[in-house]
């Protein structure tokens, strides 16, 4: 297919070897340069990739915003068959990132992904509710994007105020609460597409550009002492540390989260019992913070 002289010359001009698209066999013997490297591809992975695909086609080479559209590595625990219903005890995630039953009611918002305009609307409503009922109601937003990306996004929308943010990059907490990946219809139904064009709060590109510009992607991400000692997320307003169950380096990057992840909202009373629950049926579903607050006996967001 790529044997013609014209094609070979064109590929050479852009720095690709003439057999870059030959997937039939390993090309370990094709490195004919004196230093053993392929011209223009010095930064590639080793050519012993058993899949037969050239290393430069690794998904990690794609822009961060593009990787968020690819199928992510499954969470470390199976996704629960269904979300908790009113009357059920709040699920316990594997690493005990979320704890309930201490006497104070909790509202938990599972975000779709940072940079998402739909997630932004829900987060701003949660933030307002937390501030209005500070000291009486705990409001937690769970993000499956990285700590650095989440913190940048939160800064862009004005901070957390009295809300808390827990990082679950491996999506173990999402799985415990029955939140998996949405379907094609979840994302590409007509309503979601129309609403997507109307919304203006798309900040994914800004977040990704900031991370790449500041070099945040290359900084070490240690486990917070609070989470390591107690098995739970660091408490108090702001963006907490990275989840105990951090993801592997396999598959697409999880820095920006994943576009297919389902969102959800749950209200849990002081005894640890779920009193209100909702899972987004479409990517644009707005989480009803007013209904969740009312179920716990608190003032509505706009009240």
Quickly list its features:
303 residues, alpha/beta, 6-stranded mixed sheet, 27% helix
Radius of gyration, CA atoms, in whole angstroms: 23 Å
> Low-confidence parts, pLDDT < 50 over ≥5 residues?
9-16, 20-53, 224-234
Structural class: alpha/beta
What is the helical fraction, as a range of percent? 25-40%
Largest sheet: 6 strands, mixed
Shape: globular
Distance between the termini: 67 Å
How would you characterize this protein structure?
This protein has 303 residues and is of the alpha/beta class. Helix content is 27%, strand content 9%. The protein is built from ten helices and six strands, in the order ααβαβαβαααααβββα. It has helices spanning 5-13, 64-67, 117-132, 147-156, 172-176, 184-188, 190-198, 204-214, 225-230, 289-295, and strands at residues 106-110, 138-143, 164-167, 238-239, 264-268, 274-279. Strands 4-3-2-1-5-6 form a six-stranded mixed β-sheet. Strand 1 (106-110), helix 3 and strand 2 (138-143) form a beta-alpha-beta unit. Helix 4 (147-156) crosses helix 8 (204-214). It is globular. The chain starts with a helix and ends in an 8-residue tail after the last helix.
